[in-house]
Amino acid sequence: MRTFIPAVIGAGALAASLLLVSGAEAFPAKPAAGHPTASNVVLAAAKQPAAKFRRAKVRLETNEKPGTIIVNTVTKYLYYIQGNNRAIRYGIGVGRDGFGWSGVVHIGRKAEWPDWTPPREMVLRERRHGHNIPTFVEGGENNPLGARAMYLYRNGHDTMYRIHGTNQPSSIGLNMSSGCIRMMNADVTDLYARASVGAKVIVIGPGNRQGDIAYSDNGVDILHTLFGG
Fold this sequence. Notes:
alpha+beta, two-stranded parallel sheet, 10-stranded mixed beta sheet, globular, L,D-transpeptidase catalytic domain-like, single chain
């Protein structure tokens, strides 16, 4: 594996002003009838992650093609590659000790306000630890998968890992999940609109099974942030 450079955001008012504050944004599409409104979900997410995990447009050097997603479970950042040395960086929550993983997968399908049916082994495992989790949760504000989910497949088979929203925004930047990639609801909605079914997802984590991957995060792209394009 070649060397990659983790992201660094400097302190100061300028950098802070250039960050896109995900927790305060509205969703681009109204949830289906019967589901909570976007504004209600945002207001419910009172405790926000650290500023460094807010969405930002960054300068990123990589040979990966536009549309590729790079997930770094060490730095707790997910990158959506736009091309021309540009990317959108999102803060994420990742697997706790014993649940980290790495590899190359693809988005097999996508869902808005997804229902959640935890795997049987998860239900049994949590029960052994004294936690009785439900066997089914309808999509909505109280669903652990949040506003959107992208299901990760390998060789045409569901890995049971997802990139999804969360009703626990304070978990962003932490190792708390059972291996899924958590994002703020506004952030996962933004990524959902950009990422296509079939998109390549590279997960950098324990085991180094993602293969040879190199990228360099050179910080906030000031011109792209201010003027777009």
